[in-house]
Amino acid sequence: MHQLPLAEFPEAIRPAMAPLLLALAAITAQIQECDRKIDALCRDRYVETALPMQVHGVGPVTALCFLLTLETPDRFKKSRMVGTYLGLTPRQHSSGERDPQLPITKAGDRMLRSLLIQCAHYILGPFGQDSDLRRFGKKLLERGGKTGKKKAITAVARKLAVLLHRLWYTGEDYEALRVTKRREHLLQACA
Q1: Which distant-in-sequence residues (6+ apart) come within 8 Å of 89 by Cβ?
Q2: CB 153 within 8 A of CB 191
Q3: Confidence of residue 102 (pLDDT cuts 50, 70, 90)
Q4: How far apart are CA 165 and CA 97, in angstroms?
């Protein structure tokens, strides 16, 4: 166990901090042990988790939850159906000429939806790598609006779910800038 950083606290509160730091160290050790078990489970029993984990920002917990929730890649005829299944598409209530923008349906597995939202936060955050997903989300963020960030995060999570299913279904290697490279190639061919 590591040395407790009690010296960094004022003398008066050190007696109160010692048990808190011990509890924190014990919880950290338990989390690390759980992480090791999940990594081993992914590596040994669910090797397919390597496919979704190719995407920067998707870890073993999300990959494992994705595979176990969807059960089989053949479950959906089209990868686009996964976003709807997980409740990441907007509700619809159109009547006449009105087509209001409504929040997402929140159907499907709550935990997986939450994990995909967290991955989307990471992808759009300061540590996210340049990718088509990130560029898509940044474009939506530029639009702004009252709920612009929330909509961008949800849209990236939906696209991520579709991408993860496609990778799992086809077994392809992930290319972070596939769409961008294809566009550039088409522009060069037309010029």
Answers
A1: 83, 104, 105, 158
A2: no
A3: low
A4: 35
pLDDT in tens, 66-89: 999 999 999 999 999 999 899 887
The full DSSP string for 27-48 is HHHHHHHHHHHHHHHHHHT-GG
* Percent of the chain residues past pLDDT 90, beyond the cut: 64
Q: What is the CB neighbour count within 10 angstroms for residue 40?
A: 11
Vertex 55 angle, CA 184 and 138, to 5°: 55
Query: ∠ at Cα 146 (151, 97), nearest 5°?
Result: 75
For 32-89, the three-class secondary structure string (H helix, E strand, C coil) is HHHHHHHHHHHHHCCHHHHCHHHCCCCCHHHHHHHHHHHCCHHHCCCCCHHHHHCCCC
Using an 8 Å Cβ cutoff, are 87 and 108 in contact? yes
- The pLDDT of 113-124, averaged and rounded, is 96
pTM metric for this prediction? 0.83
User: CA quadruple 128, 41, 35, 110: dihedral positive or negative?
Assistant: positive
Backbone angles phi, psi at 10, to 5 degrees: -60, 145
Please, how many CA atoms are within 13 Å of residue 144, restricted to the half-sphere of its CB? 1
Which two tokens mark 174? Answer: 């992930």
Q: Could you give the CA distance from residue 54 to residue 64 in angstroms, rounded to a whole number?
A: 13
Q: Say whether 11 sits in a helix, a strand or coil.
A: helix
CB neighbourhood size of 12 (10 A): 7
